[in-house]
Design a protein that fits this description.
The protein is an alpha/beta fold. Helices cover 30% and strands 23% of the residues. The protein has two domains: 21-459, ANL, N-terminal domain (Rossmann fold); 502-629, ANL, C-terminal domain (GMP Synthetase, Chain A, domain 3, 2-Layer Sandwich), CATH 3.30.300. Strands 12-11-8-6-7-14-15-23 form an eight-stranded mixed β-sheet, sandwiched between helices. It has a seven-stranded mixed β-sheet with strand order 5-4-17-16-18-19-20, with helices on both faces. Strands 21-22-24-25 form a four-stranded antiparallel β-sheet. Strand 9 (173-175) and strand 10 form a beta hairpin. Bound molecules: ligand 6R9. Residues 246, 291-293, 367-371, 393-398, 419, 481-483, 495, 498, 504, 507, 509 line the site of ligand 6R9. Belongs to the ATP-dependent AMP-binding enzyme family.
């Protein structure tokens, strides 16, 4: 199923559009099914109702583990690099990983988990995180992984939304020189989570934690009480595999739902092709398993293909900005898949951290999460790839399950900051505001997809209407991505960024409404408006305009108060980079905040603010501009 020439890509693409069912039916033959499907695809985008491989039975862990045992049992499945380079790295072969997953699956059962139950995972980037994820899949429980940077309140909201029965966590996590007290955060979260019956705690940083009698158990104790034989649960192709929460333009994150069969096929197929993975190679994705990139391209995609997936706890700059390069040298990494924000941050340290490092193993480079600017692209190409490693700029989303528009390594000619061409099976279309298709090349519009693909989301947990409204109602019969996009003269796609109220901060999706809600929780805040602005390292920074009561002679409100509130309500990842206290916000007569104006001010624009005639009080704009000059 690996594409090896551009001609083959063109042929496969054509076939995938002309006869999608035959195309995906053939791709799916490369996976292991307990029972075959009777229909490859049935769909409509109105409801939406999408079913892939209907009637088929499988368990994704048999594809990620069992099927490799006979031939590749002793091959490394996961290599783990700890936060502190002085500690030993750990390697799990496929045999070992299979054994650990089965054992932990039995621990889950012992603690009352069964098929269909939702399980929240809040863990550091350790092999046990991958084990926990796979153990859920093994028994047919639905995992909901929450990134370690989210606050107790965010966790509680997510746990309650999907009524999780179990939580898997650790005492803490390392993040460079810092420690994150995961269990403490979970304890705070669980005060408001009546559905959680058990909490399994892994020892990692060895910080003291409190264990609640009857609820909390230690991972290390539990595994002693079970054996390592665990028959995989037989799942329907359309049974739920996981929920992953993501931000949208409203205040409340949605639980994006992926199902077993289609997701597996899509993650595996795209992994194998986009990275042109070759047997025996070491593949290093620097994402966190708390995000979709980690789900699809640290765990499920690579393991389904019998690959060696390198997993790393820590940050790119600790203990030095050579950390990635040292890992590449040490483990002879062949593929590095990372984010533009990490590249820009490492660029800022100059040449010194690269001196004497051996990059000769690098064959393929990848970028994900946000548009990659040309400067970062060239630096990545020259300094890390030495001009010899193709860069795959992979555009996709939590909702798409896997990579959608991207070069295929060694096959597609690349172009700096272009995601290039759609993968087989993906039918992008650009539309104007009215949903009219923009045809031809050298054009820009809103990016939609007009035909289903196996990895697409099926619903948003507990609220199908929301899924419909968010993705399938903006334009009739199309999946709307929320991204703006241009198609150049060669038909290459370049993603220009979100067209909705979603920010992309260091590759993390954050809704402006979420941040505003958090800021407004502070007793002293009357109202706020949040917009993004260009940031050298993060891609986008968060700019908050906050109405300060002090200006009306009330209690003193400080920027620190606001930062603390946001950290408590959402998590440190959503902290504004700039806060501007104002006495009013630019509103229309109907009371809508004119973000367009605030965005311009945040970008440093002071004169060309566009039409302000519909504003209720145009004078407030002048005041904001003056204040903005001072910060
Ligand atoms: C995989 C992931 C999705 C949003 C997406 C877009 C942006 C992702 C990109 C990119 C330009 C790329 N995005 N990859 N923009 N070029 N190669 O990041 O999922 O966290 O859901 O974010 O990220 O705006 O809509 P997710």
């Amino acid at each position: 199923m690996q594409i090896t020439s551009f001609k083959q890509y063109e042929e496969d693409y054509k076939k995938s559009v002309e006869n999608p069912e035959q195309f995906w039916g053939e791709v799916a033959q490369n996976f292991q099914w307990r029972k075959p499907w009777f229909k490859v695809l049935s769909w409509n985008f109105q409801e939406p109702n999408i079913k892939w491989f209907e009637g088929a039975k499988l368990n994704i862990t048999e594809n990620c583990l069992d099927r490799h045992l006979a031939t590749n049992g002793d091959k490394p499945a996961i290599i783990w690099e700890p936060n502190n380079p002085e500690e030993e790295s750990v390697t799990y072969t496929y045999k070992m990983l299979h054994e650990r997953v089965c054992r932990f699956a039995n621990v889950l059962k012992r603690n009352g988990a069964k098929k269909g139950d939702r399980i929240c995972i809040y863990m550091p980037m350790v092999p046990e995180l991958a084990i926990a994820v796979l153990a859920c899949a093994r028994i047919g429980a639905v995992h909901s992984v929450i990134f370690g940077g989210f606050s107790a309140k965010s966790i509680a909201d997510r746990i309650n939304d999907s009524q999780c029965k179990l939580v898997i966590t650790a005492d803490g996590a390392y993040r460079g020189s810092k420690q994150i007290p995961l269990k403490d955060v979970i304890d705070d979260a669980l005060i408001g989570c009546p559905t959680v019956e058990k909490c399994i705690v892994l020892t990692h940083v060895r910080t003291p934690v409190s264990m609640l009698k009857g609820r909390d158990v230690w991972w290390e104790d539990e595994v002693k009480h079970v054996n390592d034989i665990c028959e995989a649960e037989e799942m329907d192709a359309e049974d739920m595999l996981f929920i992953l929460y993501t931000s949208g333009s409203t205040g409340k994150p949605k639980g994006v739902v992926h199902t077993c069969g289609g997701y597996m096929v899509y993650a595996g197929y795209t992994f194998s092709n986009v990275f042109n993975y070759q047997p025996g190679e070491v593949y290093f994705c620097t994402a966190d398993i708390g995000w979709i990139t980690g789900h699809s391209y640290i765990v499920y995609g690579p393991l389904s293909q019998g690959a060696t997936s390198l997993l790393f706890e820590g940050i790119p700059t600790y203990p030095t900005p050579s950390r990635f390069w040292d890992i590449i040298e040490k483990h002879k990494v062949n593929t590095l898949y990372t984010a533009p924000t990490a590249i820009r941050s490492l660029m800022s340290f100059g040449e010194e951290p690269l001196q004497g490092k051996d990059f000769s193993s690098i064959r393929v480079l990848g970028s994900v999460g946000e548009p990659i600017n040309e400067e970062a692209w060239h630096w990545f190409d020259e300094k890390i790839g030495h001009g010899k490693a193709p860069i795959v700029d992979t555009w996709w989303q939590t909702e798409t399950g896997g990579i959608m528009i991207s070069p295929i390594a060694t096959v597609t000619p690349t172009k700096p900051s272009f995601a290039t061409l759609p993968l087989p099976g993906i039918q992008p279309i650009l539309v104007d505001e009215n949903g009219k298709e923009i045809e031809g090349n050298g054009v820009s519009g809103n990016l939609c997809i007009k035909f289903p693909w196996p990895g697409m989301l099926r619903t948003t947990y507990g609220d199908h209407e929301r899924c419909k409204q968010t993705y399938f109602s903006a334009y009739e019969n199309l999946y709307f991505t929320g991204d703006g996009c241009m198609r150049d003269e060669d038909g290459y796609y370049r993603i220009t960024g979100r067209v909705d109220d979603v920010l992309n901060v260091s590759g993390h999706r954050i809704g402006t409404a979420e941040v505003e809600n958090a800021i407004n929780m502070h007793a002293g805040v009357i109202e706020s408006a949040v917009v993004g602005y260009p940031h050298d390292v993060k891609g986008q920074g968060i700019y908050a305009f906050v109405i300060n009561p002090e200006m009306h002679g009330e209690a003193e409100l400080t920027k620190k108060d606001i930062l603390q509130t946001v950290t408590r309500i959402i998590g440190a990842i959503a902290k504004p980079d700039k806060i501007l206290f104002v006495s009013g916000l630019p509103k229309t007569r109907s009371g809508k905040i004119m973000r367009r104006i605030l965005r311009k001010i945040a970008e440093g624009e002071t004169t060309n603010l566009g039409d302000t005639s519909t504003l209720l009080d145009p004078a407030v704009v002048e005041e904001i501009i003056e204040a903005a000059k001072k910060i």
